[in-house]
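## retry 2 of 3
previous attempt timed out at serialization; input unchanged, resubmitting
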Amino acid sequence: AALEEIRQLKFQLSTQWNEIDRGYAETDDAIEYPDNWDDLETWVELYGQDRLVLHPKAAKAARESPFKDIPLAYKAFDYLARYYIPMRTRSANDHEAYERSKQALAELGLEESDVGTADDIKRYKHEYKRLYEGREVTLDRHLKRGVGFGGDFQFRLYFYYDEAAEKVLVGHLPTHLTNRLSHNG
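## retry succeeded, writing output
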């Protein structure tokens, strides 16, 4: 409880002096990136600024995975809240938000893209579906690092962007969901 209170106070202090529309410090100094999954849901709630929703299946998959670069997963969450959502909600003439998003991805060594056709293939379609706000949605985007299948450092984070609410639902991480090429189907 004390650790949680300290995190909340640190976060409140860091956001007190920042621009209101961002809600985050420009540097990563105020944001902690844990090396374990122990407080995953709390971290997402605290640093996600009501912009991130972590599906229970995603938390379970993270805890059961062999993935070793756990701080990268937290940095990916931070990217979604701090860069991806502002890039998606920017005005048509705001090219800076797009460039900041692109630069942040490069610094993390991540790519952001659609999931391809796996969600359209009947055999695997159910793996890309999540219940969100009382309806079924498709995890049609993902952040990724590495190629191939498996490995302790290959990373995937599958998500759905809710345009109306301007939120991201994280539906699975840090491993591949099943597709024709992932060899786990």
